[in-house]
């Protein structure tokens, strides 16, 4: 009886292997252990170039030159984005890179998660401007604070948003711990220098005067997709044709 079932199972898998060209009969060797029949490998086949199992979504997106920012910009997130930009630049200097953004920037549940977030996003913007590949940006929901700076830093003419996305240019946060007066003065000077860099980046991206941007950053300023387009934070609003 056992031999009969071995024959039946092998016949079925042989038929399957013949139908699916990526499967070989040797993948399904029958083994007998402790009077039990088992398959050495599970039935698995591939469609096109991607396996049906063990697919990493970030890796799949990266293979299509897509970087997806879906969290606040923690230090390790900025390092990851920079490394992905450099990797895609190494792969091809001619093909564009697509940066998808749905991020609260440096806030999570209205709490600051990264005091160095501004310098982190400046580093990402510097890499975007340094590499030869064009970076297209897409806002898929929200781009607040430093994420808004990132959304506006894509190639001019290729900064996109979905129609119900929202943007926010937030006032800069800074906390100077108790310290000697001289150290506080040094830290305050560095904060002002960093704020000036942010103002210059936004002014360049939006083609607005630096004084206007400086006044806006004194308070939080929210934009819907249409307002963001009018302000020149983005270029196009995506709608289904």
Automatic annotation (TrEMBL):
One Gene Ontology cellular component annotation held by this UniProt entry: endopeptidase Clp complex
InterPro entries documented for this protein: ClpP (IPR001907), ClpP/crotonase-like_dom_sf (IPR029045), ClpP/TepA (IPR023562)
Classification via Gene3D superfamilies: 2-enoyl-CoA Hydratase, Chain A, domain 1
Gene Ontology biological-process annotations: protein quality control for misfolded or incompletely synthesized proteins
Key words of the record: Hydrolase, Protease, Signal
GO molecular function, one term: ATPase binding
SUPFAM superfamilies: ClpP/crotonase
Signal sequence extent: 1-17
PANTHER family documented for this protein: ATP-DEPENDENT CLP PROTEASE PROTEOLYTIC SUBUNIT (PTHR10381), ATP-DEPENDENT CLP PROTEASE PROTEOLYTIC SUBUNIT, MITOCHONDRIAL (PTHR10381:SF11)
Family the entry assigns: Belongs to the peptidase S14 family.
Name of protein: ATP-dependent Clp protease proteolytic subunit
Gene transcribed to yield this protein: ClpR
């Amino acid at each position: 009886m056992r031999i009969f079932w071995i024959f039946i199972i092998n016949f079925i898998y042989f038929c399957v292997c013949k139908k699916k060209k990526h499967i070989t009969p040797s993948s399904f060797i029958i083994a007998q252990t402790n009077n039990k029949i088992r398959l050495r490998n599970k039935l698995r086949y591939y469609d096109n170039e991607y396996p049906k199992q063990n697919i990493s979504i970030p890796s799949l997106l990266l293979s299509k030159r897509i970087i997806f920012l879906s969290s606040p910009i923690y230090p390790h997130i900025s390092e990851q984005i920079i490394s992905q930009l450099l990797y895609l630049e190494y792969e091809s200097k001619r093909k564009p890179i697509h940066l998808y953004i749905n991020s609260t920037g440096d806030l999570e549940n209205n709490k600051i998660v990264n005091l160095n977030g501004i310098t982190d996003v400046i580093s990402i913007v510097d890499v975007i401007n340094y590499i030869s590949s064009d970076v297209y940006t897409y806002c898929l929901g929200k781009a607040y604070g430093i994420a808004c700076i990132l959304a506006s830093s894509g190639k001019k003419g290729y900064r996109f948003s979905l129609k119900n996305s929202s943007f926010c240019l937030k006032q800069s946060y800074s906390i100077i711990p108790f310290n000697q007066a001289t150290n506080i003065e040094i830290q305050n000077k560095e904060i002002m220098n960093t704020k000036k860099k942010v103002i210059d980046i936004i002014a360049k991206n939006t083609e607005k005067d630096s004084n206007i941007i400086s006044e806006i950053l004194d308070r939080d300023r929210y934009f819907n997709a249409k307002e963001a387009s009018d302000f020149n934070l983005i270029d196009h609003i995506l709608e289904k044709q």
